[in-house]
Amino acid sequence: MGQAKQRKAAKDSGRPWAPVMPVAVAGATGTNKAVREMAHLGTLSKLAEERTREVLQAACAADDERARLDRLHDVLAGAMGMMEAEVDSAYGQNADMIRLAKSVACRKGCAFCCHMAVEATIIEAILVWRRAAQSPAVHASVAPSANVEAHERWRKKHPCPMLGADGACQVYEDRPGGCRAFVSVDAKACERALMTAGTAEEDLTVPIVPFPRKIETAISIGVRRACAAENLQSCNVELTAALHLLASDASATGRWLAGETVFTPYP
Q1: Which pTM does this prediction carry?
Q2: pLDDT for the residue 151
């Protein structure tokens, strides 16, 4: 059952919806690398859920907007800190992984991937907007990119509204996990993918390092399950559409923390 159907079934039954973290098969041997990996990802997801629930309770109990946002930032800092520690640990496992780390092509100013739709948690979207709203230029650039279909945005080379003229992310410290986990080892392939988008020569063969995305997904599921457990809307959102909503409705964050369904789910 897809996530849209899962959400509908939960709504029809009157219970909060939460994403499901796949688990290792019961009784499988610990000698299987894939089983061990899945078990570890499940542990990360559970830990992220437990830590996030504690912080969300503090956020909902806070007396003012700034305190609530500070607590939500604790969620992001904890989740991204966990993710980056796991990625760093994986890169240091052996000589092959150390070489892989050195081959990562992502650098400041290399922004070809910053033309894709970004799937983010609601907390990530709120905190991106908190930082972005300090810049009038970013504030004005959100609306034109909002609600543009993902493939159309890529084909027309719509840049992320958080992308500065220098090719650097203007909210880098608070960027979503999906951005952090998209890791390429060939910047030329990334450029070719964007430049050929929507043409007969379209080439999407970008060599991506897969394990950061697995780690980010597990932690993101934990964060979203914590939201559902606290009776908060827990779906992922398309980042630019969520930013447009937050720019248009100053009450959106408070209403979300009060348990209202505020954001459009993605996909």
Answers
A1: 0.86
A2: 83
